[in-house]
Amino acid sequence: MARKIIIDTDPGQDDAVAILLALASPELEVLGITCVAGNVPLPLTSKNARVVCELAGRPDTPVFAGCERPLERPLVTAEHVHGKTGLDGITLPEPGMPLQDTHAVDFLIETLRSLPPGSVTLCPLGPLTNIATALTRAPDIAGKIAEIVLMGGAYFEVGNVTPAAEFNIHVDPQAAEIVFRSGIPLVVMPLDVTHKALTTRARVEAFRNLGTPVGHAVASWTDFFERFDMAKYGSEGAPLHDPCVIAYLLKPDLFAGRHINVEIETVSELTMGMTVADWWRVSGRAPNAMFMGDLDADGFYALLTERIARL
Ligand code: BDR
Ligand code: CA
User: Which pTM does this prediction carry?
Assistant: First the structure.
């Protein structure tokens, strides 16, 4: 039986590739896509999610708009990375499929309450505002969630949006704190992993050479956002952060990490949103997250290319 997932996202080219990977994979049943403000504001993320579903030939996927700003802090966006639309790199048709009327947080609560405990895995790919709001409004759903597999944080790589913090956690640290203290089983894909999921010319050309509209779109998106990370890091390519979450559901053996304690910095402006990860187990605090540190990048790109080819 396919594993039921809900993707919570702020597309974003790498979010888009993650959504495509999930929709291409029969092992997963995408119950819905909940959108949040992050890389770009909510009207764009909830439009982009539908653009991606239509590109995948899956306009039947329910897409919900959620929270338009972080719990306590002003919204920080990342147009400098993802472009004005959030999906710059290729112009795709305006979506014809509707946005659902239900708020994303209501969808999360209602869906989790309606299913037996442990049947749904949440896959957050952006700031954790929707998930934290659902947990705060309906604490009973915590026991219903099988697992949360999320992209966020960093330990060895420290930060990307500030010297100390990764974007998704930095944008809504209060929400991240709620999720990391929830007691729900967590698997975390920090920059330590995603910075190993680097595109190369050969990997991008493999997408383009599929000769399909989806392969062409993925190559165009990666070409677009590569320029920013290559200039910043001097690397050969750019990290495909968010598909790591979906790849983990399909092939967990591609990843290695440690079950450790991770706390979120919510007080200091200097280090706001830092994931204080006890990698060396020196704090004595109880582990609350499987914090990944390593990735088989060739295996990851082989999986991704094979699945994108199916769309
Ligand atoms: C994360 O921030 C966003 O820009 C990406 O989509 C990814 O989820 C990486 O820090
Ligand atoms: Ca994202």
Answer: 0.97
